[in-house]
Amino acid sequence: MSHAAPPGWHWAPMQAEHLEAVCALERRAHAHPWSERQFAEALQAGHSAQLLLRTAASPPDNLPDPEDFTLPDGRLLLGYWVAQAVLDEVHLHNLATARPRQGWGRLLLQRLIESAEAQGAQTLWLEVRASNQPARALYQQAGFATVATRSGYYPAEGGGREDALLLRRCLHALPVATPPAQSEPA
């Protein structure tokens, strides 16, 4: 099932000219944001990175402040994800939206799942802060299951560390080997 963007919305691959708006959104979305260099390195390494965009001329319902997340071509950045494919797995490294609880995260995640399946991936992996209940709920609704805890994985407020939950979603069922048919004794 394809989850196309609604009318006036667009998918686009993240490119270097988008990084100013991406980093502005990243700083607002995360307490410990990626730097522009980290995004640039991900793009140079060939990681998949998609943007969810909306034309600025679209009605302004629940849109971010256009001055914050406007791309050079005038479209508004609603969210993005960055993921890395390794063999038959895809690892989500970063996902953010310009405004929480608008359904944009679900749309981005659906697009990531479809992209991973199109690449032939068997498994999709991600880490999430143990304290991030809204993200955990989103991932659970999308079929992810917690498989491990990574102690002290994320930096936390006050210089401490916070645990990450390692989540997995199986994308394609692996074929089960069928034993060879045994012939009847003659």
From TrEMBL:
The keyword Cytoplasm applies. Residues 9-168 form the N-acetyltransferase domain. Gene3D superfamilies: 3.40.630.30. The keyword Zinc does not apply. The active site is at residues 127, 139. Acetyl-CoA binds at residue 132. GO terms for molecular function: protein-N-terminal-alanine acetyltransferase activity. Coiled coil: none annotated. This is [Ribosomal protein bS18]-alanine N-acetyltransferase. It comes from Serpentinimonas raichei.
